[in-house]
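Run: sequence + S-adenosyl-L-homocysteine -> complex structure.
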Amino acid sequence: MPRRQLPFFENVTILDAGAEGKAVARVNEMVVFVPFCVPGDVVDIQVISKRKSYCEGKAIKFHHYSELRVEPFCTHFGTCGGCRWQNLSYEQQLLFKQKQIDDHFTRIGKFAFPAIRPILPSPLTTGYRNKLEYTFSDRRWLNADDMAMPEDQRQSNGLGFHIPTLFDRVLDISHCYHQPEPSNAIRLAVRDFTLQKGWSFYNPRSHKGFMRNLLIRNTLSGDWMVIVVFAYDAPDEITELMTFIAEGFPQITSLIYVINTKQNDVITDQEMLLWKGEPYITEFMEAPVEGGRKLQFRIGPVSFFQTNPLQAFHLYKTAFDLAGFKGDELVYDLYCGTGTITNFVAPYVKKAVGVEYVPAAIDDAHVNSSLNQIENTVYYAGDLAKVLDAGFVLQNGRPDIIITDPPRSGMHENVVKQILQIEPAKVVYVSCNPATQARDIALMMEKYEVAAVQPVDMFPHTHHVENVVLLTIR
Ligand code: SAH
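>> structure
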């Protein structure tokens, strides 16, 4: 429908902070999603797309600003897709996250559950991330100030984040609050160096341009990994830039480059060329019990590790405490990734079995077990929907406790069915999407009841919420 025929709603009060980070209003029984608004705002809304049961709109005019608003601290707020809740105070963000879980469990789950425990706030609300991925672009997003400039004076190259829904547009970032320093310093130095050299930035439509991506990862222990992705091999230029980075930032402990000549940005299938340091960084994590041995995890350039490492400890500790191990249990850790939870619990149980479908992650999981001298773990690489069957249980034993931490899509129906067959005394369900978690738990109600619900905030200023549920057999 052309935009002029789409409805325009006046004086609408924003009611809620919705699931995907968009604020929610209701007009004549129709749900309207509006980004960058806050509950309590009164706005005029131009609808930009209309579906059967809801529409998406844009706030055109503010009649009243909500009392819940705070001033966003980042200059990129409103354009960058990163932290859409920065205009809400952190306390309000936590309340809305908590409410999201209540809503999903009530509306989708329709099962009985005890009072949701107060959400665990993140120890850090800025600089909490250990990984950022930047993209070079020859068509950076131009703001109003840029547009006011004569065209021949505008810099069209940029290094930053993709604009939401526009895959070929990148917002040049001057400062990002997500990762501690020297993250910004490294990005700006690389951008300025390559701009001064006049090297070309990549264009994802024409597939032309030399500079493609920049990944920066760090650990709490102070390791830094930088990965520069070039579109083709140019040894002199690559030497120049890598030498510049190594000399300018001696704190980098793992400096890597990649030559990605493919059309897509995925580098997991590419060769990692080590320029300086180690091919990995190492993260340390406290033990879940007092006096327990600290764990270490080796993180390679493509290994997964929870992106808020301080809060990851509290997430795992929550799962650990809810499981309430006595010491003699057989535990399955489903969707185990690099075996972080598996290794976190293994020293306190009889045996832990991790399953994950990315073979490289399983390789990391093995390394992490031996690095920590943990010998009672077993890992399998495979699709859980197929791997977890009666034969698997026969081979590995029937678990007393299952910990499951699936991706946003939740568990496959077969996995839920298998858990119901296996009938462990407890299931600890760690989820990054309470909607699919509610759906999955609803399927388990014939045999399980919800004994505890503990939300954990891993991603301040975003709508994302992690939730841990303890299910006990009836
Ligand atoms: N528990 C881990 C990682 C959880 S992320 C941690 O805390 O670090 C979810 C994991 O599920 C990812 O590693 C993903 O590769 C894996 N996964 C997704 N679908 C899967 C499937 N069908 N079978 C097995 N593993 C799967």
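>> summary
The chain is about 25% helix and 30% strand. The two ends are 52 Å apart (CA to CA).
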